[in-house]
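Input for the complex:
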Amino acid sequence: MSELRRDPLLDRWVIIAEERQLRPQDAPSSAEYELPTVDADSDPFAAGNERYTPAEVYAIRPNGEPNSPGWTVRAIPNKYPILRVEGDLDPRGYGVYDKLEGIGAHEVVIETPSDLQLRDLPLSQIYDVLNTFRLRMEDLTRDKRFAYVMVFKNHGRSAGATQSHSHSQIVALPIMPVRVREQLTALQQHWQLKRRSLFQDIIDQELRQRERVVFENESMLVICPFASSFPFELQILPKRQSADFRQASVEELRDLAEALKASLLKWKGALGEVAYNMMLHTAPNDTRQGSIYQEFPLIDTYYFWHIELLPRLTKTAGFEWGTGHYINPVLPERAAEYLREIEVELS
Amino acid sequence: MSELRRDPLLDRWVIIAEERQLRPQDAPSSAEYELPTVDADSDPFAAGNERYTPAEVYAIRPNGEPNSPGWTVRAIPNKYPILRVEGDLDPRGYGVYDKLEGIGAHEVVIETPSDLQLRDLPLSQIYDVLNTFRLRMEDLTRDKRFAYVMVFKNHGRSAGATQSHSHSQIVALPIMPVRVREQLTALQQHWQLKRRSLFQDIIDQELRQRERVVFENESMLVICPFASSFPFELQILPKRQSADFRQASVEELRDLAEALKASLLKWKGALGEVAYNMMLHTAPNDTRQGSIYQEFPLIDTYYFWHIELLPRLTKTAGFEWGTGHYINPVLPERAAEYLREIEVELS
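Predicted:
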């Protein structure tokens, strides 16, 4: 039974997820870093252990019955969801405060039945993972209660992972995330001033200057963003305007699989094993009521779906929490040069 | 030589601090948690080791010469500052991007010559630490290049501390932090609607409901905020409107010392040793040019200085980075009840 509460001082919703409740005696020791080694018998995401997870909602399955071995990619509801699917938002006031019921969806995409990490999977398998993201996002978008669907990945304990088996997560949210709204506001202001997409202007400048370019192919560009918040942060963008990841073409997904694998392998060459977060942002859902498209009617014109990759090398501390600004000890141009020069094998 | 770069997609400045540069081979292993044990000989903040730090800018010093033993609280410039004092902001465009020189101030307040932590210092010593914050903030505010002064504390490695000796940091920034601007926007909207301070409405509701109150005395209130982003998060607020911490009275600082010690001791009772961040927010500086007071003329009427205390029990992961929203597994009312019942000795 989770709920959403609005922080009135920051105009920001927080998810209070009691199902995941942490009693004081359960407080995790921050000293643990490594995920416990999981043998194939107890790994809930390994082939043969399908009975440990909720029933699959989608699978790429050359062989076998649903919820049995024979799959190569498998999407399941999260066993410990931060939001639940059943019910209504039921907005309520509470004096000066506001609440919503914790309605949404929370799924897991198991990226491989093996114990390989995402970067070590063959390109065709990474393509299948990305296409699974696309299909699950498309399906979750049909539920008109959801304002936004996001894919994210936590790899390594210091990036928040609790399972070492390679997986990503998909959440469907009843609210517009503040980070998306901030981007839309910047994009709309730029459009009103210039009649151009800010994303397109960034891509044009990056391709012209090439100082922050790490990798590119026919349709995808990988850069260290000019104002990276984290050292060795990467952003993957389609070169041609494309607002909705759910409409990505076969060619785009193929190029994206290559760009993603190249990014992760270049990190490995530069940094060794590193914990990281990946976030896939796409255009908001066009819901019936109070749609964000009424406020930002040109989303499909100026938005670009994109992937952010954050290595977790630095710690956020009092400065970051107190100001909302980040300190990055590595010049993005230097990180890009370093990563550009690392050769990787893509197959 | 640090610089500020504006992220055009989020309208947010990032500090690129090359002095603190991390080469790939220096990438910190996230596995390290405990700060290295520092013996008195090599602790740069211990009495007798004043030669290891920059010369003090302020000290409470019953005995001895400046930069020698005999002090009880000592303020020094940070040896590895994120911003430097000399120079001008020199705003420049760079295609679609924007840059500023990394101008500002970055000081360290050493809270005790001993190896005690803040919570274990006597109340009179905590009072002296708070009064040192006040005096240094006051002094830094005289520099009209600075828009905002904030105090923060990182305690424990997972909270970003790199020194185990008890200390806090003060930064003076040339820009208005986004978190402060977000609060001012919410406060101004509430004022326009209600002609009341949102902080006052929150305090009134908390004192009436008492569900989230953890501690109070004559002038200070400690609560678990309604929309806490973190489990066991605390906020310390003055009960009577007071925008500027630099104008806090002797009585307020005495009560704040007690409220702060009570908060940290209650955490210890509930959670044991815990890494945490503390942030002290006060009203912005009223600088001459383009002052924030032109945009928000009633800051002195509706703002309340306050302290935020965040225990670092949970990890921020892809969901939080991608959305800007937090997941808190502990109901704030339950955390408050638990902390309220823990008895602490205040002396």
